[in-house]
User: Which sequence fits this backbone?
């Protein structure tokens, strides 16, 4: 049997990956997560679980921890919604890029044969739409692209490096409030308007997949036959209007979704950017420029990833419902 080490084991992706690898009965699983330790009954006792901050450990301690591991999965880091103090570009580089490169180098020293990174599908759109200059404007996307590129540059000398570009991922972790809770709060406050064009037609959308599917894709990526490369994952392309309807229905509240013109949307974004400036903070996704992405179809055709990684069909719409149904007033 092979051994897999999952950094971020109690997060949505890490939890799903743990279940997926254990289901194969071909892997020993070790996870490493930030505290606190979850309640009894949450962790799968078939895996070994460690808690702490790996970035505070010495190189020797990390190499010792990784000895005997075959696969390293990086499912950690900070997502695009985190609002750091300025400058955000430096912050996201420090928390999302530097640890990946450093851990890949230490994994090689420890004899790990494959390092798999969970990164963002924004990397795909950066390459698809160079005219938007996404890495120059959005600190989070800059760091995400650097993270992927620098990891792939570490390929070789006994270590295979793979980057999985993930779209929006929906799912639940037992006894943990979903990361979508802030979205639900803003939806209740009517802070998620719907963009409409000059024909009064809603536009824009994004790609979604379930955490279960991501876990299956990670198992696929761990196979010896999968070479060093970036794979853009996805499953369901859903319009912004449809997603808002799914979410509001699941919340069980009478939520009014206000249509907005592009001009109105940008005015709202400018206000948000000004408030961030006054607070000395900077968004990972610059609010005004991000309105351009909100109006576009961020859709994925994952045919290559499906071919190679072999993840399976799942009911994304039902999982969206499950997530937002869990975010009722008591849990929020």
Assistant:
């Amino acid at each position: 049997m092979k051994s897999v080490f999952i950094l971020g084991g109690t997060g949505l992706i890490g939890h799903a990956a743990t279940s997926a690898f254990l289901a194969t009965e071909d892997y020993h699983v070790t996870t490493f997560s930030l505290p606190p330790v979850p309640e009894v009954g949450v962790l799968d006792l078939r895996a070994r679980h460690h808690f702490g901050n790996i970035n505070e450990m010495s190189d020797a301690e990390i190499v010792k921890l990784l000895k005997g591991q075959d696969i390293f999965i990086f499912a950690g880091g900070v997502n695009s919604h985190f609002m750091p103090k300025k400058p955000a570009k430096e912050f996201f580089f420090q928390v999302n890029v530097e640890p990946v490169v450093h851990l890949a180098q230490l994994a090689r020293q420890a004899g790990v044969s494959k390092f798999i990174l969970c990164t963002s599908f924004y990397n795909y759109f950066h390459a698809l739409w160079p005219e938007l200059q996404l890495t120059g404007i959005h600190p989070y996307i800059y760091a995400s692209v650097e993270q992927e590129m620098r990891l792939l540059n570490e390929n070789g000398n006994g270590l295979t490096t793979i980057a999985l570009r993930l779209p929006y991922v929906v799912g639940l972790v037992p006894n943990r409030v979903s990361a979508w809770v802030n979205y639900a709060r803003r939806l209740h406050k009517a802070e998620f308007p719907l963009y409409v064009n000059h024909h009064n037609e809603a536009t824009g959308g994004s790609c979604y997949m379930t955490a279960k599917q991501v876990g299956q894709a990670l198992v696929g990526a761990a196979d010896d036959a999968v070479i060093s490369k970036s794979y853009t994952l996805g499953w369901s392309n859903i319009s912004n209007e449809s997603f808002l309807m799914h979410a509001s229905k699941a919340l069980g509240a009478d939520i009014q979704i206000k249509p907005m013109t592009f001009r109105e949307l940008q005015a709202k974004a400018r206000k948000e950017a000004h408030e961030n400036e006054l607070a000395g903070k900077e968004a990972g996704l610059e609010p005004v420029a991000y309105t351009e992405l909100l109006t576009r179809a961020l859709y994925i055709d994952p045919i290559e990833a499906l071919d190679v990684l072999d993840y399976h069909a799942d009911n994304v719409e039902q999982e969206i419902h499950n997530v937002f149904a869990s975010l009722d007033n008591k849990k929020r």
In short: The chain has one domain: 2-325. The mean pLDDT is 93. Residues 2-325 form a domain with the Rossmann fold fold (CATH 3.40.50.720).
